[in-house]
User: Which sequence fits this backbone?
């Protein structure tokens, strides 16, 4: 899977940028169109497809070969909300009942419903909902009506996501490390486990929502500075975050401070 969001719509943490990406090196960051073309070319036999959104974003999806494996990939779109889900939830049946979904609803469908519940009427903070998810998972949600980007990755490392910065400053997310390396050169890192990202409020840990995140410098085997890893800062404290309801004047204000 591949998701790209233009700079301004979703701004990555500045520590994700590597100075080495701007210097003479064997690889250079790519523009979004180049990244998409390369992804689609390498997955043309896998039933891959892509969707663009007026130049602000695009999503590209290639189904997994084994529908019931831990690494299954799922795609769903409902009322202008798009979801790409990687992995599986062991408690999906109980979650579907809790959210009023049918037995046949898959993880990508559930993620959209959970997002809509949080956005529109959820009484609980976003981190409470994410901590209810059992299994190995990672997902990207894009709400086209509100221009919201929401990303989360489970804590068990069973699924891996990577993010980086393209040549034009776009944020690039994929479950394929080689795609990220090719697209972002040195300006990439693993997406931190047990964390969530919102394009207005940034990155935070849903396992430790009272703590800020801190960037940890990362150097590759060539001695070049790469995009930073992000870890929970146990010495810092922030207010509890929650997802705002539609129409709230304090839109996303209770999510937490910019971090």
Assistant:
């Amino acid at each position: 899977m591949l998701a790209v969001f233009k700079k301004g719509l979703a701004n990555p943490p500045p520590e994700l940028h590597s100075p080495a990406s701007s210097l003479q090196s064997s690889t250079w960051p790519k523009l979004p169109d180049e990244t998409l073309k390369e992804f689609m070319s390498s997955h043309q036999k896998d039933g891959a497809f892509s969707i663009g959104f007026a130049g602000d974003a695009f999503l590209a999806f290639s189904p997994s070969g084994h529908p019931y494996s831990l690494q299954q990939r799922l795609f769903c779109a409902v009322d202008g909300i798009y979801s790409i889900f990687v992995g599986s939830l062991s408690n999906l049946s109980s979650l579907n009942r809790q959210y009023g979904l049918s037995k046949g609803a898959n993880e990508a469908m559930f993620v959209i419903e959970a997002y809509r519940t949080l956005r529109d009427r959820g009484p609980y903070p976003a981190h409470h909902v994410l901590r209810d998810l059992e299994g190995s998972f990672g997902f990207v949600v894009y709400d086209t009506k509100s221009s919201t980007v929401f990303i989360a990755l489970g804590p068990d490392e069973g699924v891996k996501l990577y993010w980086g910065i393209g040549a034009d400053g776009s944020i690039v997310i994929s479950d394929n490390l080689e795609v990220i390396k090719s697209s972002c050169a040195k300006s990439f890192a693993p997406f931190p486990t047990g964390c969530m990202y919102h394009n207005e409020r940034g990155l935070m840990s849903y396992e430790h929502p009272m703590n800020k995140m801190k960037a940890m410098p990362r150097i590759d085997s060539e001695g070049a500075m790469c995009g930073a890893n992000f870890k929970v800062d146990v010495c810092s404290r922030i207010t509890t975050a929650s997802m705002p309801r539609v129409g709230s004047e304090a839109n996303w204000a209770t999510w937490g401070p910019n971090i």
The first strand starts at residue 2 and ends at 5. The CA atoms of residues 4 and 132 lie 28 Å apart. DSSP finds five helices and 14 strands in the chain. Residues 247-259 have pLDDT under 50 and may be disordered.
